[in-house]
């Protein structure tokens, strides 16, 4: 069993990430050779003075990356194929600071350990063996027709969308879809005043600005984006998350939905609907997408990043016919389109019911994990107000006055929770709050993590 030196800077936070980086470097540089057994998570946690959950998270990350293998009864070992590589030059070291926000665990990330590997592999095999040879050539940058047909049917059935396959463009996730749409709209208008929700995902801000948008923040309240305030902005487009606002989790009220559509119709503006996690509804009937109300004014963007895995980089844009064609052309000019094998595989996965089956399984599991987290918070931290839990994979926690959201998020991360402070997501100041993801938190670990958080925050007037 390996004796490990794992340096940890508690002041910097992200302890699980620090452990993963140290172990990954040890494997890459030969200090941990293939086949070497690592200490049990409980032992390493005791040695490092951290919770076992933090070490488990680091081990799970490296297992997912292929650096480690773990089998019941035999422990955790360095993967046989893990090769020694030269030390990276300073120019290739991992990004730090703000750059880190674009990769790794997020509060909205699914549990990748539940990715349906066997069923997805079956769909990949079917695609490789069944599609004609010509399908491997440069194809339609808008996506393969089979996938657009399946997606159109799925979106009509599940999201109440008004979608024609010809108006769907397959993209590499919602981020690329938004970039392409904004590129087209900006080129047409010579700049684009874009209304955005406040608060909103801080990861999207650089993307939106790089595409040429001038951001106009609009406040969000308990009914969603404030459309009356939106009318006071000179916006030509609005980016919204109506089914489950990020980060607050608010569902856009019926009155606001009607008002938003009316604003678009009155002004000729375009509504960009980010439908990022609408498939996961727990306590209420699903809310149909906004695009189904006004297909001539709303662009619907979605992906499989929350339902399956972000790493698949498979998404779609449904837009009015003229705009969809412009986005399709822009996609062709950018990179000629998405990989075709994965598109055919997703079409098969949808057609054979694998996608629906996986969603049903994960809804049950995520609801169980959500209930465990919410119950533990209610029992041990009743001062914390929990919001936005009717859907999605994260909870919005309003913290008591005087709490420091950065310290709270850091303490939560040290305990194995995926947590982010809300401050960086705001355009205008607000009360302390954090976003916590529950998709990767097993139900049996929820109470332990919340009790640990209570202890860590005991200096902030917690009994």
UniProtKB/TrEMBL annotation:
Gene3D superfamilies: Type I PLP-dependent aspartate aminotransferase-like (Major domain), Winged helix-like DNA-binding domain superfamily/Winged helix DNA-binding domain. The keyword Transferase applies. Pfam families: Aminotran_1_2, GntR. Transmembrane segments: none annotated. The keyword Transcription regulation applies. GO terms for molecular function: DNA binding; DNA-binding transcription factor activity; pyridoxal phosphate binding; transaminase activity. Keywords: Aminotransferase, DNA-binding, Pyridoxal phosphate, Transcription, Transcription regulation, Transferase. Residues 13-81 form the HTH gntR-type domain. Residues 79-98 have a biased composition (Low complexity). Residues 79-110 are annotated as: Disordered. CDD domains: AAT_like (cd00609), WHTH_GntR (cd07377). In the C-terminal section; belongs to the class-I pyridoxal-phosphate-dependent aminotransferase family. This is GntR family transcriptional regulator/MocR family aminotransferase. It comes from Nonomuraea muscovyensis.
């Amino acid at each position: 069993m390996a004796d490990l030196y794992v340096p940890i800077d508690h002041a910097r936070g992200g302890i699980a990430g620090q452990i993963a980086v140290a172990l990954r470097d040890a494997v890459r540089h030969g200090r941990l050779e293939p086949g070497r057994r690592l200490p049990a998570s409980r032992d390493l946690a005791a040695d490092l003075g951290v919770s076992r959950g933090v070490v488990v998270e680091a081990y799970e990350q490296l297992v997912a990356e292929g650096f480690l293998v773990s089998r019941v009864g035999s422990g955790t070992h360095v993967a046989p194929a893990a090769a020694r590589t030269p030390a990276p030059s300073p120019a290739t070291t991992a990004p730090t600071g703000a750059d880190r926000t674009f990769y790794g665990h997020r509060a909205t990330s699914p549990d990748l350990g539940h990715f349906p590997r066997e069923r997805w592999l079956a769909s990949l095999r079917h695609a490789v063996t069944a599609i004609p040879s010509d399908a491997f050539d440069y194809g339609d940058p808008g996506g393969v027709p089979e996938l657009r047909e399946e997606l159109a049917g799925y979106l009509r059935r599940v999201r109440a969308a008004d979608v024609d396959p010809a108006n769907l463009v397959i993209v590499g996730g919602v981020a690329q879809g938004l970039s392409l749409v904004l590129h087209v709209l900006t080129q047409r208008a010579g700049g684009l005043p874009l209304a955005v929700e406040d608060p909103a995902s801080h990861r999207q801000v650089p993307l939106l600005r790089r595409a040429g948008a001038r951001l106009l923040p609009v406040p969000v309240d308990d009914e969603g984006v404030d459309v009356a305030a939106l009318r006071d902005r000179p916006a030509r487009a609005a980016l919204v998350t109506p089914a489950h606002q990020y980060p607050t989790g608010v569902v856009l009220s019926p009155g606001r939905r009607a008002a938003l559509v009316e604003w678009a119709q009155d002004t000729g503006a375009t509504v960009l609907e980010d439908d990022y996690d609408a498939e996961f509804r727990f306590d209420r009937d699903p809310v149909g997408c906004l695009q189904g109300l006004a297909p001539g004014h709303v662009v619907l963007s979605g992906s499989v990043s929350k339902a399956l895995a972000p790493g698949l980089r498979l998404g779609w844009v449904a837009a009015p016919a003229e705009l969809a064609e412009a986005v399709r052309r822009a996609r062709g000019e950018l990179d000629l389109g998405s990989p075709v094998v994965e598109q055919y595989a997703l079409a098969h996965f949808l057609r054979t019911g694998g996608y629906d089956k996986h969603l049903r399984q994960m809804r049950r599991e995520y609801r169980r994990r959500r209930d465990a987290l919410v119950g533990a918070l209610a029992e041990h931290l009743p001062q914390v107000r929990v919001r936005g839990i009717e859907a999605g994979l994260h909870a919005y926690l309003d913290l008591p006055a005087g709490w420091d959201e950065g310290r709270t998020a850091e303490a939560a991360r040290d305990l194995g929770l995926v947590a982010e402070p809300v401050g960086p997501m705001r355009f205008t100041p607000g009360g302390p709050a954090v976003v916590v993801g529950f998709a990767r938190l097993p139900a049996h670990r929820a109470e332990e993590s919340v009790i640990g958080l209570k202890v860590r925050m005991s200096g902030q007037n917690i009994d």
